[in-house]
């Protein structure tokens, strides 16, 4: 009996949890884009470090404003000024610039657009609210607080925040090492001439390397391996000795020359083989020594779908992401088309999610969904997820969609 997709994914994530955690390293902040924090990051300072002005304007005391709405100007404070020796007489106001430190006894900063300059001083034209336009110390980040949890992806906004807090280095998990190779006598390297009627280009390995690079993996490219049991075993052994994860494309179906599954059983163990999903039924998962193994089907669309839906969460889990980050965003929308679906397998059809003239989200199929139709991805921005026991879907029905994440953009 075939495993359901949910059962297969659960087994994969359980294996990831059981795997030895990656070591960590400290690297310069500038090199940390999209790396995963190996520890909670604690702020060494308050942010802002001091009360400062949110506007170009005038610092005032409410007691002075209550006596007069026109106050003489006594001083100017610029960003970066040291105001410890500032002389600010009662009954006056202070000119202040955005980001400049606010005197401790200032109750508000009034933006300059709400004032006018007169011979008697600065006249305040509108009612003033105490505390307005003052950024308080620690309002954004408090010293000693956790800024980012362990397992956080260090995006550009994240790194910008760390730079604001003064970090120049950060501890991250080491990159996952992934060995990858394709199998098949029919495969030809990109750029070479196709010889013979059965020859095709090795596009899957190219695609897998792009995906792995997007996930910040260290890639070990073992090339094209012919349909030879001995050479496939040699490649699997080499990959498992060097990498944390071995990924192959092709050789896991039921053909006479599909030797990868047999080699895996001899060298390690098979956790499962075949899933009730479409495309991607012939997917093998197991382990060789300390390395986990994913055997992807050879059809291009099946390779991409299984990598996205099963290998991506495995890599994220092995790389240090928390389990809560591994669930895809999904919701229900109306389909504009009738969708063909056979009962028995979870189906990941490719669709285009868009807003209609009424401002409502709807999804449209990209057309033919065969595992060889690569164009189905070129016009898609989401998966239409049709449940295992579901049959055909009528136009106007609600369906589940999963918008593509950054891996496919």
Describe the protein.
- The structure is a single chain.
- This protein is α/β, with parallel strands linked by helices and 409 residues long.
- The chain has four domains: 5-23 and 174-326, 3-Layer(aba) Sandwich (Molybdenum Cofactor Biosythetic Enzyme, Chain A); 32-45 and 144-173, Alpha-Beta Complex (Molybdopterin biosynthesis moea protein, domain 2); 52-135, Molybdopterin biosynthesis moeA protein, domain 3, CATH 2.170.190; 331-408, Beta-clip (Beta Barrel).
- The protein contains eight helices and 27 strands.
- The strands form eight sheets. It has a six-stranded mixed β-sheet, sandwiched between helices. The chain has a five-stranded mixed barrel with strand order 23-25-24-26-27. Strands 6-7-4-8 form a four-stranded mixed β-sheet.
- The model has no long low-confidence stretch (mean pLDDT 94).
């Amino acid at each position: 009996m075939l495993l359901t997709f949910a059962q297969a994914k659960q087994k994969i994530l359980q294996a990831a949890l059981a795997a030895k955690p990656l070591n960590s390293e400290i690297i310069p902040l500038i090199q940390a884009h999209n790396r995963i924090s190996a520890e909670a990051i604690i702020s060494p300072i308050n942010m802002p470090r001091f009360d400062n002005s949110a506007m170009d304007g005038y610092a005032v005391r409410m007691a002075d404003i209550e006596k007069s709405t026109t106050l003489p100007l006594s001083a100017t404070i610029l960003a970066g000024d040291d105001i410890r020796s500032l002389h600010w007489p009662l009954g006056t106001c202070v000119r202040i610039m955005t980001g400049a430190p606010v005197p401790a006894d200032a109750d508000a900063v009034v933006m300059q657009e709400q004032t006018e300059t007169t011979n008697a001083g600065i006249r305040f034209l509108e009612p003033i609210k105490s505390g307005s336009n003052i950024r308080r110390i620690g309002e954004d980040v408090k010293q000693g607080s956790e800024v980012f949890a362990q397992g956080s992806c260090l995006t550009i906004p994240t790194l910008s925040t760390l730079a604001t807090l003064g970090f120049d280095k950060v501890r991250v998990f080491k990159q996952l090492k992934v060995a990858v190779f394709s199998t098949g006598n029919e495969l030809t390297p990109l750029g070479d001439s196709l010889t013979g009627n059965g020859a095709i280009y090795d596009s899957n390995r190219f695609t897998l390397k792009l995906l792995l690079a997007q996930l910040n993996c260290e890639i070990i490219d073992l090339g094209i391996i012919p349909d030879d049991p001995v050479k496939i075993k040699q490649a699997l052994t080499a990959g498992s000795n060097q990498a944390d994860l071995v990924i192959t494309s092709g050789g896991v179906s039921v053909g006479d020359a599909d030797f990868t599954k047999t080699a895996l059983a001899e060298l390690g163990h098979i956790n499962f083989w075949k899933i009730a999903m479409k495309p991607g039924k012939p997917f093998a998962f197991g382990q060789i020594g300390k390395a986990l193994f994913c055997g992807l089907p050879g059809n291009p669309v099946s390779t991409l779908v299984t990598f996205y839906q099963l290998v991506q969460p495995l890599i994220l889990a092995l790389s240090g992401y928390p389990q809560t980050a591994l669930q895809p965003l999904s919701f229900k929308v109306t389909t504009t088309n009738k969708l063909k679906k056979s009962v028995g397998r979870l189906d990941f059809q490719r669709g285009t999610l868009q807003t209609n003239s009424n401002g409502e989200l709807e999804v449209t199929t990209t057309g033919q969904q065969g595992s060889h139709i690569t164009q189905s991805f070129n016009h898609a921005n989401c998966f239409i997820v049709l449940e295992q026991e579901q049959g055909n879907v009528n136009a106007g029905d609600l369906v589940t969609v999963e918008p593509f994440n950054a891996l496919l953009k």
